[in-house]
What does this fold into?
Amino acid sequence: MIMRLDRIGLLAVPGLAFLAVIYALPLVLLLFKSVQGVDGLTLITYIDFFGDEFNQVVLWRTLRVALLTTLLALAIAYPTAFAMARAKGIWLNVFLVALVLPMSLGVIVKAFAWSILFRSNGFLNTSLQSLGITDEPIRMLFTETALIIGAANVFLPFMVLPIYTVVRQLNRNLPEAASSLGATPWFRFTRVTLPLTLPGVVAGSAFTFSLAISMYVIPSLIVGERQQTLSMLIARSFLYLRNEPLGSTISAVLLAIAIFVVLFSSWLAGRLGARK
Amino acid sequence: MTYKTARALTRRTLLKTSAMATVGTLAAPSILRAQSSELVIGCAGSHTAWMETIVAPHMKETIGADILFEGTKSSVNLEKMSSNKDAPYLSVVQMDDPVMIQAVEADLLTPITPDAVPNMTDLRTDATHMDGMWCNYVQPWAGIAYNTDKTDGVASWSALWEPANAGQIIIPSLQNTEGMWTLMSAAMLGSGLPFSEAQYEIDAAFAKLEELKPNLLTVYSTMSQAFNLLEQGEISMLSGNFSSYTLPRKAEGVPVDLAAPAEGIFAMPSGICLVKGGPNPELAQAYVNEMLGPVMQAAIADFASSVPANTTVTAGAVVPEGVQIYAPDWAFVASNRAEWIDRFDKLMAL
It folds into this structure.
């Protein structure tokens, strides 16, 4: 049995080797550059980075946008996942196609489409004025709100699919059993359904948050250079400032956040699984 | 029959085939490139239209080269050259003068000589730089692009600062070379000096840029998106835009035009260089020679509303009369640009 496991384990070698060379090795080199000083190892670039008000603003904005994007995607994805889980036949296919097809459309095309939607004489502003909600066009382009809406749209499938997978496996007898014992709909949802679907929520949130915190093209196109994010700072450091230690330091900070999110979500999913 | 099929795919066959396929896939680009007449050219993304329609067919016909363009920003082209210094894959790069200076300092270029590129002898004297390290091939002029449905014209650079234009202006980032024109204008207005002297008054420039913030819808690093908003009428003015982009769009009937403010306009620096150790060096020299020759000069200058660098060519853009054209001290720009970008980004973000 042990022999067989080892041989099966060999199947992972190409994938691990690929990751080691293409992902891990460059990351290690990058991390090394972030602590490499003239006279040896130093943390000066980290001290400079966290001491700069501009970097603090960008770091906080990046975290805030990633968090709000995740929350918006969750609010849309959670009921959608239930609808998909209940759907059958052609309706299920319609849901899946509607979810996956937009992923094949480039972000650049979407960004241009959003600029038509968000502009002062665009559909949203015209509708708000027609309904008497606003008297004059409100600024939507190049705002953080537009960025969060756009990012949630792009990353929605990564939130829906993990929740959908969990909801599909949900034992429908459990809420019914709670109901037969006198539980109200709210009690059934908060004490039975929600806890059982939390592993999917955690996985989807981890996916979405990780993608949102490291996005580069979407903020570049939607909010421009006045509201930079950490990824934009990395590109700026390497390409324009030609400051490799700074770019490596920001990359390390971004990586640390991503690792924390992955580890925390794994721990949380494990805790929730154990409770279930 | 089943036995035969099973034998056809032994473990050894599978491993051998997989290994050959992997090696073949990884080696294919190098093999093909080494054997072909392909030239990889780094150029600006905004040049793609005329590079594909004018340059590529001409080069195939005259020098037999298959041209592959990589359109991006000058700084990204520089990074590509720098990262692949030991094994360059770009043969020729067309980028802006301040970035050319950085490329020369990093020893990434090889000189263009009249022996290998005879057409360079017909260039204006100010179009050849640093003993032939690079040449300017065409020169668009830069001013303020505006939407003709929203405004009748732009008489002065100070129009960008007028309160009536709140939220109606987009300017380029200093990451883009055309971003320098707004900085220079701010220096001129802030210091009260002419452009030739004001370009060194950087503190005055940044103080004046601070006053511009209420009028800005955004700061772009991708020009096509900003220009799209100008065409749609979402903004009135796009600062620092140039003739090779605005005027062809105007000719297509789009409601845009390029203003030449009274204080002066700027000469966009479009350079061409040979990459040191780049593939197909003789073909690369032939490409540069054609780019500097009368046929390509006339065609590009006409298509992109630019001033040709070849003195034997009379085609191209009509430069506005009575307005001074300035070219900044690019060496000064190149040596300070990183610091200015950092300062500009912080000013705009905070």
Confidence is low (pLDDT under 50) at residues 1-6 of chain B. Chain B touches chain A at residues 73, 75-76, 79, 167, 173, 175, 216-222, 225, 228-229, 232-234, 337-338, 341-342, 345-346, 348-350 (CB under 8 Å). Residues 207 and 238 of chain B are 20 Å apart (CA to CA).
